[in-house]
Amino acid sequence: MNKGTNLTEGKISTILISLAIPIVGASFLQMTYGLVDMIWIGKIGSGAVAAIGTASFFLNLGEALNSIVVMGGGIKTSHTIGAKKNKELEEYISSSFLINLILSLVFIFFIFLFKNSLIGFFNLGNPLIEKEAKIYLQIVGIGLFFKFPNILYMRILNSYGETKLPFKISCVGVILNIFLDPILIFGFNLGIAGAAIATLISQGVITFMFIHVSKKFFNIQNIFKIYSKKIGEIISLGTPIGIQRVLFTGIGIILGKIVADFGPDAIAAQKIGLQIESISYMTIGGLYGATASFIGQNYGAQNFDRINKGYKLALVISSALGLFTTILFICFPRFLVEIFIKDSKAVEIGINYLRIVGISQIFMCIEIVTNGSFNGIGVPKTPSIISVIFTTLRVPLAYFLGNIYGINGVWMTISITMFLKGTISPLLFIFNLKKLTK
After folding, report:
1. Cβ distance 374 to 421 under 8 Å?
2. DSSP letters spanning 265-319
3. Which in 129, 345, 379, 437 has the greatest CB count within 10 A?
4. Please, is 247 exposed, middle or buried when counting C-beta atoms within 10 Å of its C-beta (0-12, 13-18, 19+)?
């Protein structure tokens, strides 16, 4: 059985970059699902984009809940790999997939049971948009049965130091999605439902590929065997991160409601802006995964000097990526927005979104990499507390600035809080690392 890559030895820069590049690629490919859907749906109109944007808030909520097991399981996997505790490793992996399965089934049931209330929360005032949002929510919601384990497979394989296989598998899924989208949306005239079905099929194919290739690294002997202590540890480690992401998503839903008060064009612009911003988010997400895996294994081996050097290098790389994104968003916003949509009002709102949030991209990148570092040393509570405080602050700040500056006030709120989180997080990580070293 393949034991993966030993991250406790070798040149740090080479390891981080070799780990990060495939993760970045896989993240970009995951992002491409949404981008491809958005490009094709944008041809239908801003109403269709608003429908997907509304439904996506709740799909993101499901993924936020799933981060409990993905992060908790990923942390314990990397620690046990670094400590070479193979029996415990198998038990942590099996427990992770059991929790993952239960979460997916419960959340899918939740979507179908409360779909009317969820979409109705936004008071879109357009029955057609609401109907299409419900259709998209239900079909892609079923796909979470596949997407939840796909994300977990990626995280566990990354813990082994294996990042190329997830990238290759994601390539297959994206190519399939790109091929199916125009056929189902326009060829079969299914519209939004076609985009949702294409995503569902692609995610299902990816799951079966992960099941096959993961056997080279680990086997799940009995997914229904309960290791209560291991389950407790996974949930305990993952819950702070899960709460952080659920809160982030929940606040996003509330902000979405505030944005909805400015009309469907504002919702469409926000969805487009978020998709474009995910270019930055997914890129730095690759470095997040590489840093978490690198620091996780070295923490298991108690190699603190490598942790310190690895984190400093990750900060330099993340700052460079953030600066590049800032320049891109501020200098070329119209070009980026018009790739997806042509409605003049939505385009102008989207341009302002990119320019305002573009200012804080460096701080967002620093925060994300630092969160991965905190997870690597098994201290997820600190970044979660920071996120809870400043993400919650977005609601009153958005109401306050929104009344003064209109929809741009909401975008300013996002940028200000990203700056604060990206400034405080690294200071606290350095403090925690010094404590561990002593």
Report:
1. no
2. HHHHHHHHHHHHHHHHHHHHHHHHHHHHHHHHHHHHTT-HHHHHHHHHHHHHHHH
3. 129
4. middle
**Choice between 353 and 275, residue whose per-residue pLDDT is larger:** 353
At position 413, the amino acid (one-letter code) is T
Residue type, 165: L
Nearest to 178 by CA among 37, 27, 339: 37
Do 436 and 304 meet the contact criterion of CB atoms below 8 Å apart? yes
Q: Are 268 and 341 in contact (CB under 8 A)?
A: yes
pLDDT at 391 > cutoff 90 = no
Q: How many helices (H) and strands (E) does the chain have?
A: 15, 0
Paired tokens of 24: 């970045």
* Structural tokens at position 13: 């820069």
Mean pLDDT of 383-392: 88
Q: Record the tokens describing residue 258, joined without a space.
A: 């505030």
In which residue are the tokens 């400034």 written? 423
What is the token pair recorded at 271?
A: 């969805």
Tell me the average pLDDT across 255-272.
Answer: 87
Give the predicted TM-score (pTM) of the model.
0.76
Rounded CA separation 219/240 (Å): 28
End-to-end alpha carbon distance in the chain: 37
Tokens read off for 42: 């944008």
Q: How far apart are CA 401 and CA 413, in angstroms?
A: 7
